[in-house]
Amino acid sequence: MITMTFKLPMLFATLALALSAGTALAAPIAPDSTVSITGGILGLPGGKISNATGLDFLNFGVAGTAGGTISLNAPSTGTFGPLFTLAGCPLAASAGGCGTITDLPAGTMPIASNMPISLPITNFYTITQAGRTLSFDLTAITDVSRISAGLTTLSISGSGTFRLAGYDPTPGIFTLTAQGSGETTFSAQAVAGTVPVTVPVPEPASLAILGMGLLGLGIGMARRSPQASAA
Length: 231
Hints:
The chain is an alpha+beta fold. It contains two helices and nine strands; from the N terminus they run H-E-E-E-E-E-E-E-E-E-H.
């Protein structure tokens, strides 16, 4: 009796501690939270940006380097609003900005592109302010649009995942636009929580449903059999 009195409170305390620890680990990133970035860019191969099949982001304003530097070009919204501000990112991308972005090699974006292009890049871009780092992992480029007349334009869309300490990894959509020829600038935005998440039915649940159906069929047949024999 004494043993049961001791173990039961301990069990409830342990469960409460486990549940509170699980809920304290992360918080959701609010849907439609946005962050907007800008920086220098060179289409690969060189020439009109509309002909680019890859992107060389300028590092401190210099092309031909690994990756590039970025800065914010609009106020962040939602969860990101108070964490990543224009005031906290005062430097232009050419002076170092407040983040980095990974180059897309030539051939990443074929000229004829109607199908999604698988391209997982961890930490495709990062933004750091006051010791916090927001990362966006680019999972795929889903659309490439080109305008070759006048001020040539390249627009790309993609999907990926936001990662921020203290928050759940959250799916998002990435868009980028650049205009001109040679070295130019780009604008990009990523929006959280806009990618639908499909949760497949686990296989054990499917088997359980099938089993219940077969069990019901068996019971029905068993109930009919006495009547059939009496007839």
